[in-house]
Amino acid sequence: MANTSSSSTIRAHIDVQLFHYIVKIGIGTFKTKPPYKEYYLDIDTGSSLIWIQCEGCTKCFKQTPSPFPKEKSSSFQPILRDNKHVQYQCRYEDGDNTNGILDRETFYLRSNTGGLEKLENIQFGCGLDNEMQYGDYKNNKIAGMIGLGWDDIPFVKQLGLKSKGKFSYCLPVVSSGKTPSTFLRFGDDIAHKKNSKSTPLYRREKKSPYYVQLLGISINKTRLNISPKVFAFKNNERSGCMIDSGTHYSRIVTHAFDVLKLELEKYFSRFKGLKKIKGNLGLEICYQRSKPDGFNNLPDITFHLQGSDADFVMKAEAAFEVVGRFIPIRLREYFCLAIIRDNVESIIGAYQQTNHMIIHDTKNKKLVFYPEDCSKKS
């Protein structure tokens, strides 16, 4: 269990690598200064395992720095059952997977006073057979994943009194170009604001992801004609609406997506100088503009969630991707709805969560959120 003797709070600075939001964490005990090695881990609320690629991996993805040298850390403890290493297997929805052994190790996070907090005996996975798309990126610095999902041994639960079952994050817009000063926070380090909204969090079939009840969608302030039943949970089937920091673009079930697509086409038909095109981002609803205009004249999109006034409002920057396109002599620009269709379930992804403070309160089973400029200290 984590060391909870100190009264200060713990946090981890959030950074970005392409479409991934990551945190830097110190791991292990070495005869060096500092006495640990630092690694970036991908923030994933859709899974519960904390794991890192370890030295000795038989299938490894490329990363900087080199994999975690477990044998050289004096605080590394393999978890044994009947004198054998306890193994884990974890497969993600996109086909990525990691296999290895479960261990305990000392982790280091920052405190609100600027110092370090030592967290002992944290259970994590040492990845020895890993297939992750991170390795395809040039100079990939992601070494593993910090699973914050709803399970028996997630990081949040292992922090005990330090987390009080709560964590929060504020995801900056990737294209803002600013270095974010925003943190993954736990417990008493989380600030609630008067304008915050909340919606119940659901767990399904004892699995890791967090689910919310999506009831409808609006473009600007016009509610679309979509029955809440479209988003409802179905017994023992993938269905409903997940909120997941590990999914980049949000997904909407096909029937609702078709209504949204039709209404957006009507909305954009009123503007001159727009031409429907096929974008190259894997997104379906794209337009080229005759004059670059950034996010101007693009509508807000609102997800109506269960609860009184639990409207999750996405400004244009969180609802659309805008891409500059160079054509000889003239600069062209196109934009796409940054949401894709899905046959079975809806997901509120990381792109749509940007510029919101998102608080997962697992004890009270609720998601609290409010708008926030995540490029500023948050």
From TrEMBL:
Membrane-spanning intervals of the chain: none
SUPFAM superfamilies linked to this entry: Acid proteases
Domain (Peptidase A1): residue spans on this chain: 21-370
Keywords from the named record: Aspartyl protease, Glycoprotein, Hydrolase, Protease
Species: Rehmannia glutinosa
Domain of life: Eukaryota
Nucleus found in the keyword field: no
PANTHER family listed in its UniProt record: ASPARTIC PROTEINASE CDR1-LIKE, OS07G0603500 PROTEIN-RELATED
KW Protease (keyword) present: yes
InterPro entries associated with the record: Pepsin-like_plant (IPR034161), PEPTIDASE_A1 (IPR033121), Peptidase_aspartic_dom_sf (IPR021109), Plant_Aspart_Prot_A1 (IPR051708), TAXi_C (IPR032799), TAXi_N (IPR032861)
Family affiliation: Belongs to the peptidase A1 family.
Entry protein name: Peptidase A1 domain-containing protein
